[in-house]
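Structural prep section.
Before we set up the soaks we want a predicted structure of the protein with 3-methyl-2-oxobutanoic acid in place, mainly to decide which crystallisation condition to try first. Input record follows.
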Amino acid sequence: MDQKIFIFDTTLRDGEQVPGCKLNKKEKIELALELEALGVDILEAGFPISSPGDFEAVHEIATLLKKATVCGLSRAVQKDIEVAGEALKPAARKRIHTGIGTSDFHIKSKFNSNREEILERAVKAVKWARQFTDDVEFYAEDAGRTANDYLARVVEAVIKAGATTVNIPDTTGYCLPHQYGEKIAYLINNVPNVDKAVLSCHCHNDLGLATANSIAGVIAGARQIECTINGLGERAGNTSLEEVVMIIKQHGHLGFFTGINATQLNPISRKVADTMRMPVQPNKAIVGANAFSHSSGIHQDGFLKDTTTYEIIAPEEVGADSSKIVLTARSGRSALAYRFQKLGHSFNRNDIDALYEQFLAVADTKKEVYDEDLEQLAKAYQAASVTA
Ligand code: KIV
Ligand code: ZN
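Run finished without errors. Recording the tokens verbatim:
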């Protein structure tokens, strides 16, 4: 039977850390309700100790959400955890996400500590968090660069202390997909109590590998992906929710499914982009303005004969506007005829041959040829035909 991959959305926490993306309480609440309607399983609403405003936003979201688990971030610090517990109090389902850096980079440079001390702090943090909820997620920050044998000891200890999900973040986006997959497989094979917890992928995109790494992680046995709408997040961003959801959907042979309503992916992408004032790059997979645009003659000809020649996803499946045939100097006759037809002009093959030369003359002077340019071409051509 297919296995569920839990979608942990962190748009309102890791995504909101992006410079310029800060949200006020009202905006956070609005997006939280939409993310719940989208079908995310866990929604990381914020970092309650970070500011009174974030505390209030997490508290309000915890009051309002009925289906999704509401999660609050904390460091492995008692006060952080208490504040997160307080902010999450009204939630129907609540999770505390606590953790600490486990790579030697973090242990030495950030904490001036040693592996044993960090392991103790990790265990203590989980035990504090368990006083507020049975649903505790531990993050081993910079797990991507943490030695696997030490990471396995930390994972075993935090599960023993009561963590029900263990997040294995590739915080710096360093890992290659096979390395990240091997890390998850190593934990599955070497942590004796690993079956008592869900392993989670939290991958950053510094090398453009966040999505590939998350997929490698679930193939290796992780069952949760942490991701954001439009791939927003620290530096180069996080794993993009829309990408992992559609990979899982397109590649059914992997044997996974998610609870996400894919038809809402484009509407929510636009909503997040507008609310956070962070435009989406046009060539972004699934939700970019060009994700369903065809502009070269070879592609247009194939697409117009059968859409599946150049589209693996139908736009309506992800709530996008219908596919576009864009006219540029690289477009061909089929596309030109198609666009004329859409405007109500049915020219025959000879007409199109003649019009195509005129079209190219216009197209070479512009980035894109629009309907109004086509109307002018049609008018001039029809007038010339009458006089001829
Ligand atoms: O990237 C990271 O390691 C994080 C943790 C706080 C989970 O965002
Ligand atoms: Zn992160």
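Observations: The longest strand covers residues 94-101.
Flagged for discussion at group meeting.
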